[in-house]
Amino acid sequence: MFLEYILEMMKLAKYEKLADGTYYGYISKIKGLWVNETSVKKCEKALWEVSEEWVLLKIYRRSVLPVIRGKRLDRKSVV
Q1: Can you give the pLDDT at residue 73?
Q2: Backbone φ and ψ of 37, nearest 5°
Q3: Model pTM score
Q4: Cβ distance 48 to 33 under 8 Å?
Q5: What's the longest Cα–Cα distance across the chain?
Q6: CA distance readout (Å), 47 to 4, 77, 78
Q7: DSSP at 73
Q8: Which of 11, 28, 50, 78 has the most CB atoms at less than 10 Å from its CB?
């Protein structure tokens, strides 16, 4: 379930090239979840890692995770 949830999050990822030549990546449905890297590939990898950490932190804090593209994840699904 965890992997499926992250995969669905990544389907919502958006990438923009900034004026300084770096890339800004974010998950459109998750406020504050973003990365900045030197290439799209690095940006995607960093965004995946940050997304995993964000989900684990939310679970640790017993926060409710949003439904992402029809996928729901709760603490019981991960622990």
Answers
A1: 86
A2: -140, 175
A3: 0.87
A4: no
A5: 43
A6: 15, 22, 20
A7: -
A8: 50
Q: What pLDDT digit, counting tens, does each position of 9-66 carry?
A: 999 999 999 999 999 999 988 999 999 999 999 999 999 999 999 999 999 999 989 9
The β-bridge relationship of strands 23-27 and 13-17 is: antiparallel
For 49, what's the count of Cα atoms within 13 Å in the CB-facing half-sphere?
9
- Vertex 5: Cα angle to 49 and 63 (nearest 5): 85
Q: Which residue has the tokens 């029809």?
A: 70
The pair of three-digit structure tokens given for residue 11, joined into one six-digit string: 């389907």
Pairing of strands 34-37, 13-17: unpaired
38: amino acid identity, one letter: T
